[in-house]
Amino acid sequence: MARGRRSVVASDHFPGHLRTEPKRSLVRTLTQVHRLLRELPFPAVNDLPPHQIAFLQQFGFDANLQRRWHDALAAGTLTKASNVVTGPLQAPPAQDLDALPAPGSPRHRELDALGRAAIAKGELGVVVLNGGMATRFGGVVKGVVPVLGERRSFLGLVLEDLQRVERVTGGRIPLFLMNSFATDASTKEHFDRHAHFGHDAARIAHFTQFVALRMTKQGELFRLGNGDVSAYGPGHGDFPGAFRAAGLLQRFRAAGGRYVLVRNVDNLGARIEPVILGHHIASRRDATVELAPKWKGDAGGAPYLYQGRTQLIEGLRFPPGFDADIVDVFNTNTLWFTAAAIDREFELGRYYVEKSVEGRTAVQVEHLIGELTAHLPSSFLRVPREGVATRFLPVKTPEDLVAIRKEIEAIYGA
Question: Are the CB atoms for 107 and 101 separated by under 8 Å?
């Protein structure tokens, strides 16, 4: 499906310390979107007027898919129970979980050199999953939130890391930002305001994930208190399809790109690491998943042996009473892909998720990037979680920024 470049935001509520971000164009776009969405008078997507469907399709809206979700909810076939795996989950064989060689060892140096050489030849690109709003930071776009000062936002630190590796290797690393309809405009303005953080603007590309509409449990369109329908991004499983639909994967490959690092915007540990790229290349697998040690209280997806294959299974697919701790690591959502392997369509599962919106329960259907491991030969790599070498340093709340500030400064510099 063709993708447009029109962008909207979901909220114009900026806390005082972030009001330096330009807002006027965002508010105008928000007003336009609310006006158009408020015109949707019908309880089922089947009845949306063509011009309204066309507007949503600028963000990859698939009316036929949405209709099928409505029908499945109404029929009772799309539920939490339908998410659950249909066979046993077992701990993967020990040989399926890899570990990096000790720093300074001959093998570590070999993999590091392999990764650096690939970067020097322009074979690595970085994709940042930047579709989320920072509700706990006042409802702004997560990527523009200051981390170590106003210019050193989450996205600013991504650029610092990229430029650091370019200086060391002499390579050029293109940056791709998968925004959502809610984050695209503000993200672009953030880059413009900071002159692309000193980076070559020609090597920074923005694309948007797709969009869908929330529903009620009965299969009707979910409406906000003001009558608007409620749009959302249907998950980071959009990545391969949206990347290809925007033409960026094809352009990257045509320019000699061979490998892609995909990371969350708010994981400050997910930096470019040549030795991990070297591991990915040497493994001859199409995907490499970074796994962090599981600590008490951690929840989330992990690699399990399912249907004869080790693959990532997320928590919403666990059967009732399942002991997730049969695996002592979990998915950090930092993945490395061979670009040629993801240049095709994938049939990923679609999962029922309940979301509290304005104090009421809404249903949205999501898919997951980790499920690509069910389709691609994959390597599962244990990575460190502590110290300056950590690969997992997520920031979910303002309190996190305070609590781990010393760790962030140790990694990025005060």
Answer: yes
